[in-house]
Write a structure and sequence with these properties.
Number of strands of chain A: 16
Largest sheet of chain B: 7 strands, antiparallel
Shape of chain A: globular
Number of strands of chain B: 16
CATH superfamily of the largest domain in chain A: FAD/NAD(P)-binding domain
Oligomer: heterodimer
Helix content of chain B: 25-40%
Shape of chain B: globular
Helix content of chain A: 25-40%
Distance between the termini of chain A: 72 Å
Radius of gyration of chain B: 19 Å
Order of helices and strands of chain B: EEHEEEHEEEHEHEEHEHEEEHEHH
Chain lengths: 505, 287
């Protein structure tokens, strides 16, 4: 696919919009389906690998309107069922199609707290866009209405024009809630609980809040200014944020309830324990978890070699193990840090890759080499314990496994050696162990995830949990969805407590 | 922000700072550490062990050697200045009980993390024999304090400038041979801990070591601190920092500590150049 620049895409959209608006008759479904899908303007691949700036530049207003007009407004709205937080998608697209972008973002905000983030990082092709009637009619998922891109556009416009409103906070209730972690689940809980007038304190272990959105997802996919803005909104609502505070270590969870007087606690500590393969050579110098590599690059700003004190490896030939978004992020970060070759090694095929389609495409465009149906079996090193090569095996796909994906089976005797100086392991995360290590009485499953009921209640009274610490490594939107449920349950519990106190008085 | 209340140079390139940190002072136990960062945006996060704490005053004491850019910059701060970010206490506390006779071995700056362990072991009723070693007398720290806390103190230096002219493993071997030791706790440079573990191995004396590896977050998230312990991968930050010295793969750990050596050496070199320039400037100002 040839790269079209933003000006060209914008001019095409302007023309298309003029033509559409000039039609005397209202658009029929057939007309809508015929509207060409709007391509996302992006930095040219050759240019973007030399900088850390955002790759996808965002729709123009005309593109957003034209894309929104592609929506058929089907009464059954299958897209809404595909959205984990049930955003009224046809309604916001109708508003955007009319050029009423403010109305559009307000509709989204009724269900989602982080539209600028979700517009960028949601796996739309597995959720709302998977169900889209337009995509299904065209028998091409790629040509479904780009709901996420329109969401991003209206959210960005609202922010850029300074129209983000601080949500209304009800009068103080005198109740207080501790929120542990400051990623998407926690941000949602903090906002929803604060709205009801309860005092909220967010405890973050790192020196900056935002969780995985700050340390994990790179600037070129999610600009940190957007995350910071969301945190600023919380603070403007009166949420207190305490960084450098590790609940379990700086203070026990139990003490928050019993000594510090919090009425409820929400645990949103995420899936922060990197998994390794358990193969020979994995602790050699030059083998990193994707978490470490990305945290150094993002949060610690090691990409800025001049100014940052935190070092990052000067890799030349990099292998990234895994096929998810984190693997794509790591591979693309390695390119931007100057690696000459980046090899992505995944044991299934592209079809089974959990990464967003757009991330896979961007990685390919930027020059990441994909090695499918292969996996590392051993990492080889020199006398100094540094990585020199990786031994791999070839795989074929067998019957579907529990996850519904076809099980990769190794082909015996297919070993081959790939010379590399760096291996980045991006095969997922287990739940962070700190809370369970330091909180007797909180039930976890055999993977260490905190067990909750549908109200996000844990086995400990007044303690709720949500996001990746419950789900295992998942997505921003699912974390947000759980945050919503937890906040509703916390708010209900606190108001019931009030009623009971009132009754007994 | 955590304010520095006191700062003192206690040996060559070794400093002691007392920092306001009420919550850490209250919660910390022997064996735990903190991570600090001097600049919010571009600073590096480094782990430092807690040498002492005063919960009533709300302070902790850090003892560190200037080995890299961050420790150099930390040494340049004065009372009244603040540390931008300080988080802790991190790591699992030392397992303290009345074991009987405990030999505590410190190499150089290792005396700092060992200090609270000696304190706690003493309080638990153990008989304490401390071996305090350093390359040279000008690098020995906490000698008086260790003498107070220990039933027996053996000082040794590599060059014989103070105490016995010996490596810490020599008196450790003698004590092991003599028998009656229930536990050894050894903290210092990896090579010293490795040889302490090798010394006690034939006698089957349980030997605990405290590892100081490369870390970013200190909460299990990055895995940069991982070490091989008995063929298993362990994270120093959440599984440690203390491990069974007989099972730690020290060679792998030492290799991993070198991971950023070229970059660190460049930064350290730069620190020395800047320091020298500043000193030259100051002496110029005086004349």
């Amino acid at each position: 696919m040839t790269h079209k620049d933003r000006d060209q895409l914008s001019a095409e959209a302007r023309q298309a919009l003029t033509d559409l608006l000039a039609r005397p008759e209202p658009l029929k479904p057939r007309d809508r389906i015929a509207i060409p899908p709007q391509e996302m303007p992006a930095q040219a691949p050759g240019q973007r690998v030399t900088n850390m700036s955002e790759v996808a530049l965002g729709y123009t207003a005309e593109q957003a309107r034209v894309e929104s007009m592609r929506c058929l407004q089907c009464p059954s709205a299958p897209c809404v069922a595909g959205c984990p937080v049930g955003i009224n998608i046809p309604a916001f697209l109708a508003a955007a199609a009319d050029g009423n972008f403010q109305r559009a973002v307000e509709i989204i905000r009724a269900s989602s707290l982080l539209p600028a983030v979700c517009g960028r990082v949601c796996p739309q092709e597995e959720q709302c866009q998977l169900e889209c009637t337009v995509g299904k009619s065209l028998k091409d998922l790629d040509r479904a209405v780009s709901i996420g891109r329109v969401e991003r556009f209206v959210a960005d416009l609202e922010r850029e024009e300074g129209r983000v409103e601080i949500p209304h906070v009800k009068p103080e209730t005198g109740k207080s809630v501790a929120v542990i972690g400051s990623g998407p689940a926690s941000i949602t809980v903090a906002a929803d609980v604060r709205r009801e007038g309860h005092a909220v304190t967010v405890f973050e272990a790192f020196h900056k809040p935002g969780g995985v959105m700050m340390y994990g997802i790179p600037e070129f996919r999610l600009p940190k200014a957007i995350v910071t803005q969301e945190i600023d909104v919380l603070e403007a609502m009166g949420v207190r944020i305490r960084t450098n505070f590790v609940v379990g270590r700086t203070r026990k969870l139990k003490d928050l309830l019993e000594i510090d007087g919090f009425d409820a606690v929400f645990v949103g500590t995420g899936a922060g324990l990197p998994r390794f393969m358990g193969i020979e050579g994995e602790n050699l110098v030059g083998v990193f978890s994707a978490n470490e590599f990305l945290t150094r690059a993002n949060l610690m700003r090691a990409y800025d070699r001049e100014d940052a004190d935190t070092p990052i490896s000067r890799s030349r030939v990099v292998a990234v193990l895994g096929g998810g978004n984190v693997a794509m992020d790591a591979a693309r970060t390695a390119l931007r840090l100057g690696a000459g070759q980046v090899h992505l090694v995944y044991r299934r095929t592209e079809q089974e890759m959990p990464a967003r389609i757009e991330e896979v495409r961007h990685a390919r465009e930027e020059g990441v080499t994909f090695h499918l149906l292969q996996n590392a079996s051993r990492i080889l090193g020199n006398d100094h314990g540094c990585v020199t090569a990786m031994e791999c095996l070839r795989y074929q796909l067998g019957e579907p496994d529990d996850s519904g994906r076809r099980r990769p089976l190794e082909i015996p005797g297919s070993e081959f050696v790939m010379p590399v100086d760096t291996v980045i392991v991006a095969i997922g995360n287990d739940s962070n162990p700190l809370i369970r290590q330091t909180t007797p009485g909180i039930d976890v499953n055999r993977w260490g995830n905190i067990v909750t009921n549908e109200k996000q209640e844990t086995s400990m009274p007044r303690v709720f949990a949500g996001g990746d610490i419950v789900l295992g490594a998942a997505t921003v939107i699912l974390a947000m969805g759980q945050g919503r449920q937890a906040a509703a349950a916390i708010n209900r519990m606190l108001s019931e407590a009030d009623t009971q106190e009132g009754d007994s008085a | 922000m955590n304010k520095i209340l006191e700062k003192e140079r206690i040996a060559e390139e070794v400093y002691r700072v007392t920092v306001e940190a009420p919550l850490i002072a209250q919660e910390r136990q022997a064996g735990q550490f903190v991570i600090l960062q001097l600049d919010d945006d571009f600073g590096e996060r480094i782990p430092l062990t807690i040498a002492d704490a005063d919960p009533a005053r709300g302070t902790i004491t850090l003892i560190f050697q200037t080995v890299g850019k961050t420790t150099h910059n930390l040494a340049e701060l004065s009372p009244g200045d603040a540390i931008a970010n300080l988080v802790g206490p991190l790591g699992r506390p030392t397992h303290i009980e009345n074991f009987g006779a405990v030999v505590c071995v410190a190499g150089g700056i290792g005396a700092a993390p060992l200090h609270p362990i000696v304190q706690a072991m003493k309080t638990a009723g153990n008989r304490i024999i401390t071996i305090l070693g350093a390359r040279s007398s000008n690098l020995l720290i906490l000698e008086d304090r260790m003498r107070e806390l220990s039933d027996e103190l053996i000082v040794c230096t590599d060059d014989g400038s103070r105490g016995r002219k010996a490596l810490v493993t020599e008196p450790l071997a003698e004590l092991s041979e003599r028998g009656g030791i229930d536990l050894v706790v050894a903290i210092g440079p990896p090579i010293m801990m490795k040889f302490c573990a090798e010394t006690t191995r034939p006698y089957g004396i349980r030997t605990v070591v405290s590892l100081n590896t490369i870390m970013v977050d200190g909460t299990g998230m990055c895995g940069g601190c991982r070490v091989t312990v008995g063929n298993e991968t362990k994270f120093v930050c959440v599984d440690g920092p203390e491990f069974d010295g007989h099972r730690v793969d020290f060679d792998n750990m030492m290799d991993r500590l070198q991971a950023y050596k070229p970059q660190e050496d460049e930064a350290h070199e730069q620190c020395h150049l800047e320091m020298a320039a500043r000193e030259k400037q100051q002496s110029g100002d005086r004349s």
